[in-house]
Amino acid sequence: MAIPKQSVLIMLVEDDEGHQLLIRENLRAGGVINDVLQMGHGEEALDYLFRRGVHRDPAKTPRPGLILLDIKMPKVDGYTVLERVKADPQLRHIPVLMLTSTEDQVEVNRCYSLGANGYIVKPLSYDAFQARVKSLGLFLDIVRFPD
Questions:
Q1: What is the domain-level CATH number for residue 76?
Q2: Mean pLDDT over residues 63-81, rounded?
């Protein structure tokens, strides 16, 4: 018996517009049809997740089922966003996949110690980046998410 696909909102928190576009396009190319909510920096993501400011209305701010989170961003970095999400009882169940351009093991360890559910290195070459995001799309197609 086939397991039905889950339709979860994906929050992409990435300050680089080129990376945002590549990630979105390659998720689609990888078969991901989920809605993708783009946030340009960590502060914007926290305002949305904690329903502050222009994001106060719960009807207009559905909870994401997955967060793709860059680490190095202006205003509020990915570590801070991750820490606050995982410390909140209503948000901590949301899977968070960290996106970064470094393979530094100290950074990897820090992300996992803060509660990250995965760590994805953004390759420097376009073709490698494209292939990695398509693979992420295939992963999202088979994984089950919490309600």
A1: 3.40.50.2300
A2: 94
